[in-house]
Structures are given as C-alpha cells and as structure tokens.
C-alpha cells in the first residue's frame, strides 16, 4: 500500500509539471535584458509577500519565463507549493513504514498526517487546474476559490503538526523532523502563493493590464431571512427549496433510507454512505429515520453533494464516545466526519458522550467545502465541533460544550443558533471558540452572528465562579467575530483569554459588533493589540455571509442560494 501511494504522488509531480506548462528555456547566450526584465517582474510579484527572500529564490530560479505574463509566475509558485506538499507526504509515508511497530500515538499521528497531506494535494490540484485552464482575468475573478484552496493547504499542514503530542518525546522528535525537512517549507510556500493571489489586482496593474480588475460583479441581494445560499445547480435549488416547507420530508425523494428496524433500504448509516454510486451526478439524498446510531462514519471526498436528513435532532441521533483520554488523537475522536464538498445535514444530532473527563472528544468533524448544517444539534464538551477546513455554514443549530468547543482552521459562519456553555471539569474554564489561522492572508476565521450565548442549567448556579470566555487565540492570526448576538451574563467581562505560553494576542483579530445582553458590555474587555473592540458597520459587513463566504467567480450568494437553506446574506439587525 505504501509503495502505491508513493508512486501516485510521484506521478502527480509529473502531471502537475506538464499541466501547469511552465516552459524552462535556458537562453545560452545569456540575454541580460531578459534577465533584468524577469528580475523586475519577480520584484513586483514578491514585494507584498511575507517570505520575500524565499519568494525571490523560488520565482527567480526558473529561467525563460514570459516576463509579461504574471500567470506564469503564479504557476511556478503553485508548482513549488505542490512539490513541497508531495515531498512532505512522501516523508510522512516513509516514516509511517519505519514506525509501524511504534506506539499507537506515533502511528495515529503519522497516519493522520498522510491523510491531511493527501487532502492538501487535492486542494492544490484544483489550484493547478484553474491556473492551467483559465486566463489571468478569470483567475482574478475566481480568486475567492483560489484563496480558499490555498488557505486549506495551510490548515492541513497545521493540523498535521498539531496531531503530535509535544509531551511525548517520540512524537515530538518526529514532529520536529517533519517540520524541519518539509512542513515548514509547505507553510511558507503556500503563504507566498496566497499573498500573491491576494495582491493580484495590484500585480496586474503593475504589469500593465487594463481590463476590469474588480472581482466579478456581485449582485447585492437584500437580506432575506428565508433566502438561500448559492453554491449549487438549478436542480439543487429546486430540490433544496423544499427544505423550508413544513412538509419538506414528503417532498424529497431519498436515494437511501436508513432504519434500524428494517423498514428502510439499509439499517446503518455506513451502508447508506457505501451505497453512493461511483461517479454519481446530482444530489444524493440519505434519509435517516429516528433512532440512536452508535457508529463512526466518514463521508469520503468523492461522495460529493450528499443531503443527509433525519426526523429531527431529538429523534435522529448519531453518537459516539471516542476521546483523547483513552488514547485517540483528536481528529480520530469524531462521532461523524465529512470530507466531501457540498454536504448538507438537516434535522439530526451529532454527539460525543465522553464527558469532561474525556478531554478532546469531537462530535462532528467537517472539512467539506461549501457545506451547510441546518437545524442540527452538536453536543459535547471539549472540541465538540471541529470545523477543520474550507467554507462552512451553520444555521438554526444548537452547539454545546466547554473548552474550545467550536474550533478549527476554516471559514465558518454560525448564524441564528444557540450556543450552550456547559459545566467543565474541575479546575477548567470555558472557551467557546479557538480559531487556528496561521497566516495573515488566510481567508479563515469563525463568525458567530445573530446567536444566543447561554449557560446550561448545570452551570447556571456556578456561572460566576467558573470563568467562561468567547474564545482564545490558538494561532498567530486567529480571527473570531461575535456580532448581532445576545451574550449571557456569565461571560467574563474580559471577554477573551490568552492561549498559554503564546503571544498570539499581539497579532490575532478579535472583534465584536452590535451585540446585546448583559455579557455584551465591552468596557472591561481585554486590552490586547489583537482585540479590535466594537467594529463599525462597514468593518463588520466584511464578516456577513455575502462577503465572508465568497465562492466561485460570481459571489458567495451563489452557493448559499443554491443550497436553498435559510440564511441571512447581510446583517440580521437594522
């Protein structure tokens, strides 16, 4: 198995090299004029990147590039990033073989790393295809997708490193080896490519392009509380338009029905996922009848556009109790996981019952791009919702937990939901969010909009003794915004708390806007450089669905509307 994966990775190098079409033509006569022109082009492209020397070395090392074509330099950056990820993948694959007799923690961390880096390769292949198949105007117009894919590569790289326990000498040593020999380079090269894409308008102007450099026209639709996100086809819109009706279940034809009593087509969710046909086109509907399903399932990346719906969150429950205290890595503790694009779940509960003593114990892990979770409950304690990567939308949900119970490195908007803070283990304090944005230009972050933040009944009598915070900055550029929400009195006046032994408060982006309730008073909030206080309406508009969840060459409103799930594109309040 190991050999096959290495072969496919090497093949990818060849495919990418051919697909991008970077022509390396060495001018034997040494055309100094061309060299000077190329150096000037590289200088323009690299000037706004965070790792300038590496950018110069990477783009300047390829001779014979068309100095008038900025896309050629973007192609070089993407290829260099792909090469670094494949190198890291092959290294993790080799280490997996070398440590097949090591302890469980090392084997799980390396296996997770391999899976994460495979996902990173898929994201980079999408970037490669876009650069290869589209002109520079189209690349610019679809920059929201480009930035999302690149941000996900850094997310996968970061989560790979987080899987190794620094308290375990064996795991720490392997992590340091991976970082030094490959993973640090992955982060830097991806960040360079991301910085270039974020500066593309300026770069194109410097190259003398005169066509329309504004992003493709976004039709600014009025805020519609019963409107729908726009990621999907006309057929999807017709189908998913039924979700807002009272009789919506009777209007959707399931491809598979799951029923434990045998009244459906299958008895387990695993069987339903396995029934997804290879190469299926359209929306695949899985109806999960009432019952408590204690199974651990992952929707694979190839099973795109699944709609999974139940009889309501009180009736259809997916449960598990895997946890870190029992030796499972955080990524492996999820009661349910999705890795496919276009996933929708409605009317279900995802829970992890490990309790506070289980430490990290994920109920729901999601890395599916353009996914939506509607009228679902997510119940757990620490790390309840692992919003791992890509663009995610949650609406009319209930999310409960204690420590970092909404976390990840994704672009996540939680709208019109109830966030329930529970009683933690003895000596712990509560933190609702932990975003892991590691580079400044990543499109990632957590936005909580139009939600109720409340204490559960068990916490209520001790809500002033047990500290509770809106979040803490997991990485250098952690980004979290709480807006238009009702914040309970139990949230500490400081609002936010430091991540131990780090200085992320200096560079994070934490902010609030138009909140209400006794916990919304910002007078006593932290005085960090990274805490931006109360935003203006114009500043806050950047974190509404219409702007924060941009996708495709048209707009974020396209995919949200196509999903046909209730949402607000703009502000929830006047």
UniProtKB/TrEMBL annotation:
- Give any single GO term for biological process: cell wall modification
Q: Where is the active site?
A: 404
- Residue ranges constituting the Pectinesterase inhibitor domain according to the UniProt record: 37-196
Catalytic activities:
[(1->4)-alpha-D-galacturonosyl methyl ester](n) + n H2O = [(1->4)-alpha-D-galacturonosyl](n) + n methanol + n H(+)
Named in its record, the pathway it takes part in is: Glycan metabolism; pectin degradation; 2-dehydro-3-deoxy-D-gluconate from pectin: step 1/5
Q: What class of enzyme is it?
A: hydrolase
Which InterPro entries does the UniProt entry name for this protein?
Invertase/methylesterase_inhib (IPR035513), Pectin_lyas_fold (IPR012334), Pectin_lyase_fold/virulence (IPR011050), Pectinesterase_Asp_AS (IPR033131), Pectinesterase_cat (IPR000070), Pectinesterase_inhib_dom (IPR006501)
Compartment(s) where it occurs, according to its Swiss-Prot or TrEMBL record: Secreted, Cell wall
Known EC number: 3.1.1.11
Could you tell me which Pfam families the record lists for this protein? Pectinesterase, PMEI
Q: Which GO terms describe its molecular function?
A: pectinesterase activity
Tell me yes or no: is Secreted among this UniProt entry's keywords.
yes
Q: Which UniProt keywords apply?
A: Aspartyl esterase, Cell wall, Cell wall biogenesis/degradation, Hydrolase, Secreted, Signal
Q: Which residues form the signal peptide?
A: 1-25
- Kindly report the protein's main subcellular placement as a broad class: secreted
Assigned protein family: In the C-terminal section; belongs to the pectinesterase family. In the N-terminal section; belongs to the PMEI family.
Q: What is this protein called?
A: Pectinesterase
């Amino acid at each position: 198995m190991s050999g096959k994966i290495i072969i496919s990775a090497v093949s990818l190098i060849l495919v990418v090299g051919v697909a991008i079409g970077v022509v390396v033509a060495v001018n034997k006569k040494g055309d100094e004029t061309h060299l000077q022109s190329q150096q000037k082009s590289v200088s323009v492209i690299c000037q706004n990147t965070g790792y300038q020397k590496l950018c110069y070395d990477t783009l300047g090392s390829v001779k014979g590039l068309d100095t008038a074509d900025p896309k050629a330099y973007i192609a070089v950056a993407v290829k260099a990033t792909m090469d670094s990820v494949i190198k890291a993948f092959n290294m993790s694959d080799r280490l997996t073989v070398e440590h097949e007799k090591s302890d469980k923690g090392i084997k799980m961390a390396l296996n997770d790393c391999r899976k994460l880096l495979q996902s990173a390769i898929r994201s980079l292949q999408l970037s490669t295809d876009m650069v290869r198949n589209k002109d520079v105007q189209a690349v610019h117009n679809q920059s929201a997708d480009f930035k999302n894919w690149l941000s996900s590569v850094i997310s996968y790289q970061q989560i790979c490193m987080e899987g190794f326990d620094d308290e375990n000498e064996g795991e720490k040593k392997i992590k340091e080896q991976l970082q030094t020999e490959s993973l640090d380079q992955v982060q830097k090269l991806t960040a360079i490519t991301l910085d270039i894409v974020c500066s593309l308008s300026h770069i194109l102007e410097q190259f003398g392009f005169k066509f329309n450099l504004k992003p493709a026209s976004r039709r600014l639709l009025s805020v519609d509380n019963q409107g729908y996100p726009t990621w999907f086809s006309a057929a999807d819109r017709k189908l998913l338009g039924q979700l807002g009706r009272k009789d919506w279940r009777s209007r959707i034809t399931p491809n598979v029905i799951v029923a434990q009593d045998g009244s459906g087509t299958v008895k387990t969710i695993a069987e339903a996922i396995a029934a997804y046909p290879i190469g299926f086109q359209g929306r695949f509907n899985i109806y999960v009848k009432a019952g408590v399903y204690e199974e651990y399932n992952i929707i694979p990346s190839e099973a795109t556009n699944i709609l999974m719906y139940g009889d309501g969150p009180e009736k259809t429950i997916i449960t598990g109790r895997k946890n870190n205290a029992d030796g499972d890595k955080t990524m492996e503790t999820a009661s349910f996981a999705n890795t496919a694009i276009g996933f929708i779940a409605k009317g279900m509960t995802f829970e992890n019952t490990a309790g506070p003593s289980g430490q990290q114990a994920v109920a729901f892990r999601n890395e599916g791009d353009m996914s939506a979770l509607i009228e679902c409950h997510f119940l757990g304690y620490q790390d309840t919702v692992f919003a791992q990567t890509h663009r995610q939308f949650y609406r009319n949900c209930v999310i409960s937990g204690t420590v970092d119970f909404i976390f990840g490195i994704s672009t996540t908007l939680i709208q019109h939901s109830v966030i329930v803070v529970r009683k933690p283990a003895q000596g712990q304090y509560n933190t609702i969010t932990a975003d892991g944005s590691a580079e400044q230009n990543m499109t990632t972050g957590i936005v909580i909009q139009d939600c109720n933040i409340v204490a559960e009944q068990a916490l209520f009598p001790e809500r002033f003794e047990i500290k509770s915070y809106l979040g803490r900055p997991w990485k250098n550029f952690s980004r979290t915004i709480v807006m238009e929400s009702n914040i309970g009195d139990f949230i500490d006046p400081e609002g936010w708390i430091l991540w131990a032994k780090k200085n992320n408060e200096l560079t994070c982006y934490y902010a609030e806007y138009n909140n209400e309730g006794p916990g919304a008073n910002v007078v006593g909030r932290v005085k960090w450089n990274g805490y931006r206080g109360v935003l203006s309406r114009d500043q806050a508009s950047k974190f509404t669905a219409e702007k924060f969840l941009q996708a495709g060459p048209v707009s974020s409103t396209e995919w949200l509307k196509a999903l046909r799930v209730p949402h607000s594109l703009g502000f929830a309040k006047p």
